[in-house]
Amino acid sequence: MEIAEMLDEIKRKALADEALKREFLATRKDAHPVAAFCRKCRDLGYPVYDMDLINAGEEFYAAMKRSTNGGGENSPMLEGEDDFYELFFAGL
Q: Which residues are CB-contacts of 65 (< 8 A; sequence separation ≥ 6)?
């Protein structure tokens, strides 16, 4: 299962369980919020690690950029499309 799929599944669980949602929101107050978030994902059985999360967003963004207008420098700027972490919380 890819990172995006795992995050969608985790988000669905958090939306259905208010306590789990609060636990995820609490990770944002940690001194290392991304690490805390990934640790919580792993506690739930999803192998999400910091660099995998960051890399998945960057790869997704690069693929989107390559697919628009020939993928050159004239491709439109896609704001926030590379940050799966922030997109997760936007959905909560």
A: 71, 75, 78
Identify residue 62 by its one-letter amino acid code: A
pLDDT band at 80; cut points 50, 70, 90: very low
- What count of other Cβ atoms lies within 10 Å of the Cβ of residue 88? 19
Q: Burial of 46 by CB count in 10 Å (0-12 exposed, 13-18 middle, 19+ buried)?
A: middle
Q: What is the pLDDT of residues 21-62, one digit of tens each?
A: 999 999 999 999 999 999 999 999 999 999 888 887 666 665
Give dist(CA 66, CA 79) in Å, integer: 15
Residue 73 burial (10 A CB sphere; 0-12, 13-18, 19+): exposed
**pLDDT more than 70, % of the chain:** 72
CB half-sphere exposure, 87, CA atoms < 13 A: 17
